[in-house]
Amino acid sequence: GESVGLHLPTLSVQEGDNSIINCAYSNSASDYFIWYKQESGKGPQFIIDIRSNMDKRQGQRVTVLLNKTVKHLSLQIAATQPGDSAVYFCAENRRDGNEKLTFGTGTRLTIIP
Amino acid sequence: ETGVTQTPRHLVMGMTNKKSLKCEQHLGHNAMYWYKQSAKKPLELMFVYSLEERVENNSVPSRFSPECPNSSHLFLHLHTLQPEDSALYLCASSLVKRDEKLFFGSGTQLSVL
To answer: Fewer CB near the terminus (10 Å): N or C of chain B?
Structure first.
């Protein structure tokens, strides 16, 4: 069935190291992908997005990679900081007349000082 | 601050109570949403309002009743809830309904006893 999932529920990274959070999707019609960050006690916050006509997009310290062949999405965070500790969600949308943003279950990233 | 404010932040209610959640956005957006966030589950879309008109209702039980008096305010009226309704209820807004860049409030943590 249709799903958006993350490979690991938790991830711990040493401060200053790079982190990679992965996400898999199953719907071939998905053409827009988003990463959200949710800190404790707050709602999800938009980080970065990518459309299916791109393989890579960079922001400030974050990079999203899209591999449509294997339906895989990843979020790379460079030089992690304590403020990066949060739950990260991927979400996908499709343009098939039934547009609905579908969220994954999230990966909890912990930055170790 | 995301520009989306939710009150109250925490709510404890009995199964026979009636309460309301409030959401206000100061972003000039035309679409507003209610999401339910339960532990270890993806965000569940409950209702979508576009230009004050309800455009989506994802099979939500009638004990949840939304109200959108204007494009800046959204309410969720709660009546005779069940313990399994305990969750974080998130309000979000976007410029237009088809805009996937959602701006979330911090949510109302609801506990039903």
So the answer is: N
Identify which of A32, A93, A103 has the shortest CB distance to residue B43. A103
B27 CB neighbours in chain A (<8 A) are none
Instruction: State whether B100 and A4 contact (CB < 8 Å).
Output: no
Residue contact B102–A46, C-beta within 8 A: yes
**Which distant-in-sequence residues (6+ apart) come within 8 Å of A85 by Cβ?**
A39, A109, A110, A111
State phi, psi for B61 to the nearest 5 degrees. Answer: -55, 150
Question: What is the reported pLDDT for A8?
Answer: 59
Separation of alpha carbons A57 and B44, rounded Å: 27
Which residues, other chains included, contact B84 with Cβ-Cβ below 8 Å and sequence gap of 6+? B112
pLDDT tens string A25-73? 888 888 899 999 999 999 999 999 999 999 999 999 999 999 999 999 9
